[in-house]
Amino acid sequence: MRSHKGSTQLVYAEAGTLYVVGTPIGNLEDMSVRAVKVLQAVDLIAAEDTRHTGKLLQHFQIATPQISYHQHNSQQRIPELVQRLQQGTAIALVSDAGMPGISDPGYELVRDCVAAKVPVVPIPGASAAIAALSASGLPTDRFVFEGFLPVKGQDRQARLQELKAEPRTMILYEAPHRLRQTLADLAATLGEERQIAIARELTKRYETFWQGSLAAAISVYQTQDPKGEFTLVVAGTEILPISLSESALKAALQDLFDQGISRSEASRQLASAIGLPRRQVYQLALSMPD
């Protein structure tokens, strides 16, 4: 979006640019004014489900033509869209809900546009992951988005084992028919007392938040039938400092020195590994002979 020199008229769609446009995840009032104007101004809208997006466009009186772009046709559609962009077509990418590229094939189109030197402009909008995190009551300073877990088998177990040691707050999406199994698997892997916030139907009429332990969540959904779209925000594991004697710390530092690592770097590595302040370990390193 820019204004022409000598004019106050804003240009909402530049030729040959891909616009990644966020759309509502439920409440249509979350649609931004800028998103509406961009969708009106582009030449083409690449939509995950043209029928679903068609209802949104009709609501906001947007007449821009659509083209389907989803996980089943993405590999065939991407070269076509990139070629159109290179020829000067302005295209908006939208998903069924929220920001494109989050748990959908949008990132593949963006990746190829970046590789082809096609300008990509984000038009920020609603995101279930961030909305759920912001109201979860769990730490928001560091977090990781995991999307949907693998449905079953070794891939699912391997992912759960990775999450077991994750110290950051974790955000997952889950379908209602798999919620009970996912809660049970999380409790079995992370422990029943791990804290979780369960957000359901975000921004919609029946939006609900539930917070508590995984054990309590399992109990709730044994008697309550899961309905709607779920976003799970799970507390990360607590990392406790390792208690080592001064002699053990010096021995560990000496091992790093013997590898040719400097005092400063050895102190940083050891402090990070055992959860002690770097300054404390560095002072100990300075007391050791050269």
Summarize the SSE layout with pairings.
Elements: E1 2-3, E2 10-11, E3 18-21, H1 33-41, E4 44-47, H2 50-59, E5 66-68, H3 74-86, E6 91-94, H4 106-115, E7 120-123, H5 128-134, E8 143-147, H6 153-164, E9 169-174, H7 179-190, E10 195-200, E11 208-213, H8 214-223, E12 230-234, H9 246-258, H10 263-274, H11 278-286
Parallel strand pairs: 3-6, 3-7, 4-5, 4-6, 8-9
Antiparallel strand pairs: 1-2, 9-12, 10-11, 10-12
Task: Report on the biggest sheet.
Answer: 5 strands, parallel
Radius of gyration based on Cα positions:
25 Å
Fold-level CATH name of the largest domain: Cobalt-precorrin-4 Transmethylase, domain 1
What is the CATH homologous superfamily assignment of the largest domain?
Tetrapyrrole methylase, N-terminal domain
Would you kindly provide a written description of the structure presented here, covering whatever features stand out?
By secondary structure, the protein is an alpha/beta fold. The protein folds into 3 domains: 2-126, 3-Layer(aba) Sandwich (Cobalt-precorrin-4 Transmethylase, domain 1); 129-234, Methyltransferase, Cobalt-precorrin-4 Transmethylase, Domain 2, CATH 3.30.950; 246-286. The chain is 40% helix and 18% strand. It contains 11 helices and 12 strands.
Key traits:
single chain; Cobalt-precorrin-4 Transmethylase, domain 1; Methyltransferase, Cobalt-precorrin-4 Transmethylase, Domain 2; 5-stranded parallel sheet; 40% helix; 18% strand; globular
In short:
With 290 residues, the protein is α/β, with parallel strands linked by helices.
